[in-house]
UniProtKB/TrEMBL annotation:
Name the record gives this protein: Chromosomal replication initiator protein DnaA
NCBIfam families tied to this protein: DnaA
Gene responsible for this protein: dnaA
Organism: Hallella mizrahii
Region named Domain I, interacts with DnaA modulators: 1-99
Coiled-coil stretches noted in the UniProt entry, renumbered to this chain: none
Residues covered by the AAA+ ATPase domain: 164-296
Length: 472
C-alpha cells in the first residue's frame, strides 16, 4: 500500500537526495537516517541518525542539499533536527564500568527556532563530567610550587572560550596536586558555564573505552562522541606511551577539538620532551599551548595544606606535630592527607590527644620510608624545603644570606650523614672546593654552640630524614 502523509514526503525527500548524490554516498550517509515524526504546528521534521559522526559529516558536506529538499517536500520554513541513536539495542560502551557516555543513545532533541535549516541541530545528551566536586580552587592552597599552574588554570576556567593557553599541559611528580588542579579547573568551569560539555577522564579509562569501541566496531561513534566535548581533561597521559593505536585516535580527537576552539587540558608525570614513545606530531601539539610544571610543595606550603585540612576536619593538632608531619611527608600532598586521616582515626579509636608520640607512630605506618642511605640530594632537598629556597639557588655563586645559610647547613649535614670526603661534597654543592666545605662546617658547629634557635632548626631538618637507616 502506498504511504501517505509525512512518511510519503520523507520518502520523496530521500528520492530527491538519491538523484543528486552517488549511490555509495546515499547508502553510506542518507540511507541510515530514520524518519521519526513530523509536527505540522511547528513545521519540524525529526529524524534519528546512528552517530554524531553522521550528523557532523552531513553538516559539513550536504547542508545546502538538505535545506532545498526539506523546503521542496515539506514546505518553506521547515526545520530539521535529529536524535543520536548509536545502537537501537545497546549503548556504545555497555561493558565499560562507570563510562561517561552512557547517556549517549537517548538525547533530548533541540530545535533552532526561527531559522531555516541551514544546519542540522545536534541534540546533545546530558553528560556526567566525571569530576570530583570536592577538588576545587577553594581548597587548592597556593604556594610557590603551584602559583603559575593555578593562575593559568583559574584563567582558563573563567574564560574557556578564549584561545589563550590551549592546550594546557600540566606535569609534575606523583602527589604534587595535578589531579586536584585539573579537577578544580573543570569544576569551576561547570559552575560558571553549566551548558559546557566538560569531561574528566584518566588516560587508562580512555584506553579501555577505545579498546572496547574497536572490539564492538563502534570506533567512529567513540571518536565522534569525544569530538562533542567543550573541555576535555585527560589525566596521566604518560599511560599512552608505546600505545600507537590509542595515540593515533587521540591525535584525531585533539585536532578536531583544537581546530574548533575547544579546551584541552592534559596532565602527566613528565614534560612532553620526556614522553619517549609518543610520536612527534602529538608532542608538538602538547607543547603548542602552555606547559605548566608543578613541583612538590615546600615545607611552608605543606604546613598551609595541613592547617587547611585540619581546619576543615575540625581537628586540633599542635604546631610542632604539624611541622613534623610537613617535614616527614616528603612533599607529597597525598602523604599529608593520609597522615592526618590516620591521626584522626587513631585519636578516635584510642580516645587520645594528637601529640608528637602519636604522630611518629602513625607516620611509620602511613608513609613508606625509603631505607636507602641518605644522599647529598636527599639532604639538600630537606634543607631547601626548610629555608624555602631552591637547589639551584644554593648551588649558585650568590652570597645572599638565605642561600649561604642553606649551603653551609647542607655541607654540614652531608659531612655528618654521608661518608663522602669534603672535596666530593663541595663538588656536589655548587662546585666548591674542600676548603669551603671545611669552613662551612666549622661555621655551623660554632653557631650550634651558642644559638638555641639554630639548634632547633638543625634538629627540625634532621627529623625530616631521621627515619632513614643512616640517620638512626
Amino acid at each position: 500500500m502506498k504511504k501517505a502523509g509525512p512518511d510519503a514526503r520523507w520518502d520523496r525527500s530521500l528520492a530527491l537526495i538519491r538523484e543528486n548524490v552517488t549511490e555509495q554516498i546515499y547508502n553510506t550517509w542518507f540511507k541510515p537516517i530514520d524518519f521519526v515524526r513530523y509536527d505540522e504546528e511547528t513545521k519540524t521534521v525529526q529524524v534519528a541518525v546512528p552517530s554524531p559522526f553522521v550528523y557532523e559529516y552531513l553538516e559539513e558536506n550536504f547542508i545546502d542539499l538538505l535545506c532545498k529538499v526539506m523546503y521542496h517536500c515539506f514546505g518553506t520554513g521547515t526545520k530539521l533536527f535529529y536524535q543520536v541513536v548509536t545502537d537501537k539495542e545497546h549503548n556504545l560502551t555497555q561493558n565499560i564500568e562507570a563510562d561517561p557516555t552512557d547517556a549517549l543513545p537517548k538525547p533530548q532533541p533541540k530545535t533552532r527556532a526561527n531559522q531555516p535549516p541551514t544546519m542540522l541541530d545536534a541534540a546533545m545528551p546530558q553528560l556526567d563530567p566525571q569530576l570530583n566536586p570536592h577538588l576545587t580552587f577553594g581548597n587548592y592552597i597556593e604556594g610557590e610550587s603551584n602559583k603559575l599552574p593555578r593562575a593559568v588554570g583559574l584563567s582558563i576556567a573563567e574564560h574557556p572560550n578564549t584561545l589563550q593557553f590551549n592546550p594546557m599541559f600540566i606535569y609534575g611528580p606523583s602527589g604534587c596536586g595535578k589531579t586536584h588542579l585539573v579537577n578544580a579547573i573543570g569544576v569551576h568551569t561547570k559552575h560558571l558555564y553549566p551548558q559546557k560539555r566538560v569531561l574528566y577522564i584518566s588516560a587508562r579509562l580512555f584506553q579501555v573505552q577505545f579498546s572496547n569501541a574497536v572490539i564492538q566496531n563502534h570506533l567512529n561513534d567513540f571518536i565522534a562522541f569525544y569530538q562533542t566535548i567543550d573541555m576535555l581533561i585527560v589525566d596521566d597521559i604518560q599511560e599512552w606511551i608505546n600505545s600507537p593505536k590509542t595515540q593515533d585516535t587521540f591525535f584525531h580527537i585533539f585536532n578536531h577539538l583544537f581546530k574548533n576552539g575547544k579546551r584541552i587540558i592534559l596532565a602527566s608525570d613528565r614534560p612532553p620532551v620526556d614522553l619517549k614513545g609518543m610520536p612527534d606530531r602529538l608532542l608538538t601539539r602538547f607543547s603548542c599551548g602552555v606547559i605548566a610544571p608543578l613541583e612538590k610543595p615546600n615545607r611552608q606550603l605543606c604546613i598551609d595544606i595541613l592547617r587547611s585540612k585540619i581546619c576543615r576536619d575540625g581537628l586540633k593538632i599542635p604546631d610542632d606535630v604539624i611541622a613534623f608531619i610537613a617535614q616527614t611527608a616528603s612533599g607529597s600532598v597525598r602523604d599529608l592527607q593520609g597522615v592526618v586521616n590516620s591521626l584522626m582515626a587513631y585519636s578516635i579509636v584510642y580516645n587520645s590527644d594528637i601529640n608528637m608520640q602519636l604522630a611518629e607512630r602513625v607516620i611509620k605506618r602511613a608513609i613508606k620510608i625509603d631505607d636507602r642511605p641518605l644522599t647529598i640530594d636527599d639532604i639538600m632537598e630537606k634543607v631547601c624545603n626548610h629555608y624555602n629556597v631552591t637547589q639551584a639557588q644554593v648551588s649558585s655563586k650568590s652570597r645572599k644570606r638565605d642561600y649561604v645559610m642553606a649551603r653551609q647547613v647542607s655541607m654540614y649535614l652531608a659531612q655528618k650523614y654521608t661518608k663522602m670526603p669534603a672535596s666530593r661534597i663541595g663538588k656536589l654543592v655548587g662546585n666548591r672546593d674542600h676548603s669551603t666545605v671545611i669552613h662551612s662546617c666549622a661555621q655551623v658547629e660554632k653557631r650550634l654552640q651558642v644559638d638555641r634557635a639554630f639548634q632547633a632548626e638543625i634538629v627540625s631538618i634532621e627529623n625530616s630524614f631521621k627515619l632513614k637507616d643512616t640517620a638512626e
